[in-house]
Predict the structure.
Amino acid sequence: MSEEAKSTAKIGVNNELVRERKRWLFFGIPWTFTKYILTEKKIIIQSGLFTSTENEILMYRVTDMTMTRSLFQKMFGLGTLVVYAHDKTTPTLEVKNIKHIREFKEILSEAVEKDRLRMKMRQSEIVDGIHDVHDDFDFEHNGD
């Protein structure tokens, strides 16, 4: 099977790359009402039972990520991924207590890079407020 076919097989329904649930720290039981869904273009966070909230971060806005695993998380096969993004509503997202944390992180990293290539964006364009870099653009001067 080619790499492209494997990638397409992974995507599944609704262009989802992976879906994880936040779990209780002890025993790793998924009895929480928070889901983390990675699609090709965004990270979706769904939470709540009686009042539901859905938040999303566009993939190309992700700037960095850090994976952590406490002793108890290691004992129950869980981990936390902290995602930093250039996003007004969610500049820092903690994807807490999920299984398959390394796989989740790798899929997220690949999706971020693919979406940046799709959008033809560079890191400096995403955070141009910090660096104010615009070297990639040619502005025409009409003599005014």
User: Anything to note?
Assistant: Residues 7 and 17 are 9 Å apart (CA to CA). DSSP finds five helices and seven strands in the chain. Residues 1-13, 129-144 have pLDDT under 50 and may be disordered. The longest strand covers residues 62-68.
